[in-house]
Amino acid sequence: xxxxxxxxxxxxxxxxxxxxxxxxxxxxxxxxxxxxxxxxxxxxxxxxxxxxxxxxxxxxxxxxxxxxxxxxxxxxxxxxxxxxxxxxxxxxxxxxxxxxxxxxxxxxxxxxxxxxxxxxxxxxxxxxxxxxxxxxxxxxxxxxxxxxxxxxxxxxxxxxxxxxxxxxxxxxxxxxxxxxxxxxxxxxxxxxxxxxxxxxxxxxxxxxxxxxxxxxxxxxxxxxxxxxxxxxxxxxxxxxxxxxxxxxxxxxxxxxxxxxxxxxxxxxxxxxxxxxxxxxxxxxxxxxxxxxxxxxxxxxxxxxxxxxxxxxxxxxxxxxxxxxxxxxxxxxxxxxxxxxxxxxxxxxxxxxxxxxxxxxxxxxxxxxxxxxxxxxxxxxxxxxxxxxxxxxxxxxxxxxxxxxxxxxxxxxxxxxxxxxxxxxxxxxxxxxxxxxxxxxxxxxxxxxxxxxxxxxxxxxxxxxxxxxxxxxxxxxxxxxxxxxxxxxxxxxxxxxxxxxxxxxxxxxxxxxxxxxxxxxxxxxxxxxxxxxxxxxxxxxxxxxxxxxxxxxxxxxxxxxxxxxxxxxxxxxxxxxxxxxxxxxxxxxxxxxxxxxxxxxxxxxxxxxxxxxxxxxxxxxxxxxxxxxxxxxxxxxxxxxxxxxxxxxxxxxxxxxxxxxxxxxxxxxxxxxxxxxxxxxxxxxxxxxxxxxxxxxxxxxxxxxxxxxxxxxxxxxxxxxxxxxxxxxxxxxxxxxxxxxxxxxxxxxxxxxxxxxxxxxxxxxxxxxxxxxxxxxxxxxxxxxxxxxxxxxxxxxxxxxxxxxxxxxxxxxxxxxxxxxxxxxxxxxxxxxxxxxxxxxxxxxxxxxxxxxxxxxxxxxxxxxxxxxxxxxxxxxxxxxxxxxxxxxxxxxxxxxxxxxxxxxxxxxxxxxxxxxxxxxxxxxxxxxxxxxxxxxxxx
RNA sequence: GCGGGUAUGGUGAAAUUGGUAGACACGCCAGAUUUAGGAUCUGGUGCCGCGAGGCGUGGGGGUUCGAGUCCCUUUACCCGCACCA
Length: 939
What we know:
By secondary structure, the chain is of the alpha+beta class. It is 33% helix and 18% strand. Strand 7 and strand 8 (251-252) form a beta hairpin. It starts with 6 loop residues before the first helix and ends with a strand. It binds one RNA strand through helix 10, strand 11, strand 15, helix 14 and strand 30.
């Protein structure tokens, strides 16, 4: 018998039908409740989709379809994060414009996505590299440029409110979310009127006397995106700077190239102004604890105090940040980072040579070495002494590279008794370890517990660390050498990239002052996609007339980072064709937050943080009405590949089967998984695979086969273990693949890809087909369905509805299988059952459901069918068997009326005392009847 | 080191509030049917044991009439952060 279930023609037919009828187009409709279901949009790489990509897309598609059946107006769009490095690198190699490469890749992606039957509204597609889109990315940049963070109102405000304040009262009463020591970076040559004591404060009269240029220079230190010299992660191999989240273990996340610290003039985003709100906002959103925790760690809030230590024989002060001000009486030395600006000033003549040698050595160490040699203790005494603010005792000042220049103030007060690193340092250099805790042994290690009672600590004696904390800070504030302070690990995000394939800045320069452009700046053509010979970004190759707008002395030639476009794309879907605004407020008010966002957790410190930042900013400025973008997020696990290996005998072209590999010195090589079936190598195919294997020899196993080794690894082109969805769709159909990917296991879990079970899922769809059809002929009865069939159906409605509500995609497939098995056993072909079953099936197997729906005689789309209602009465049973247990063992079954409540069953059992005695020999003393189905009798 | 997570048959996994652990599927075994179809159907399949029976959710302890589920403790693996003062 030929295939009854002809998935190829069915799927093709309905794809065309949906496309022609605009089945998935959606518009705002106030009469319906909205639901916004979103996938993280992909970067269209040249490799195309592999089976891991659709996992999340299928899950969100199912959810979107389900919500549509529930009567919601569902926004479910898709687009492309189409600026990025691979297209640019391909351009460098081949000279092909990245736009061309991107367009080709995009076409491939679209074809692959189309085959999977997603219900995207493609009329809303966005592409970040499209000028129509990035015009608004540039616009948002401009809004950030024209804004500052007012900590008094705790929101971003237009820069005009800041200049108004300056005009009225100068810096007095200005409480901005910028670096409190911004004035240190001000170019003093530009401000000859400032005395050497200038510390960031000026009056209204000062402000009014500033030239326009001076005003702009000051304002630059307040803007939410600003141009400044800063220490950046420079990656020479990529020829660009990277943000902290793009650097992992001292090397670039993409490509694994070394990264060094470099001082460069760059655009930055003042995300630090939002640190506290990014932290507190986490409590309002439904994300996993793990990803919230990653963001919390990344923001790294720590509460403590700033303390100033005066220096002996020097006018300067050392400022430190500490989370343990209560242990201040345990300070026995200070440590500065080798890069600390005070080091050169305070070092005594006799220590000068040693200190400089140490500084040089520290500088030579790469970031990576510094991290990996954590255990090595090194340091150098400067010869200088600080003064303990409470006791007046001299405290020696050291430098050591365990203190980081970039965190806090780059200086610490060392308390060996309370901090393990300080303790180790003290032991190593034989420095004193003052005992400041009552009854704590400090011979082996430091005691970091805040619950310990303090001793030898003057007015703090007898208090625990918890209690002493506040008292101590109060005392320091009173005496003027300390302040309560909250420190964040989060740094401002570098926003410039020295690349071609990104958004140009809407910025030009006049006398080296950046000026905004209020119009689209498109990417100019260039003759090569490489930096210029002077190390300028590729855009510097463009001639003045190549720019669509050219103003001032020169244009900004950096481009924006990859995360710029992806930080707001979810808003553009709401109003994708608007040429007047990035998104009309009425549209964003209707669609609101993303109700369900599905994507990988690898974006925790990148995209997911930046999106929250921009959303909060746009909210502050009144452009949208919500300040968290993604209400609920689910992170799908990665699908891993199963790589296959062959074993080549060293220095030969002879390959030995897996079983015998240990008899030789072999080299393990990846082999393309398409040449391997059930771990057996297709030898002829292998020879044809690569020219160097054409005359390979093989040592086979006892069955005359070549067995490959295998391992679960990340799917990647270089490991030849990529499984594309295309061939599976070809063989089994999109509906089978959709069900199978969900059936694999919980969405959140990482799992190796394995096609072993796909037949089972395919068989289920065929079995389902046979419920409706005899061969290709419809067989549906209009008679009343049996009680059993109604029970099977309603059990399934209940289960599937609950599962979809709680996001358990995998168990739904099992529930459908059980239902089909039961209906098959019952010989059920009744319309009253099959019709609702088709709707239950529709989210998972949309093509098949549509076909069956039309075969049932409907002219409309199954997508518009209402989700079947669950009716409890069909699940009620007349009689229930209550197993009765004695000491955990089932002794007899008690048949009772299903309507009885547990109390009544208990009475019934007591009335059956004779039976119980017969089984046990004794009468039951205590009977517990639970609403489940079990009765325990304790004897 | 800190934080988060996972652990159940040969395999992927179910078990939603503590209630007959292993649903559903793969694989495997036996049989039927058929002979070129990645076929279909029937039965079996946690482990030990011929059996009655015993043992079973990483290990140990606890709460409970009853624990995969709750509490304590411990081990292994995965992910993230990491001289952050």
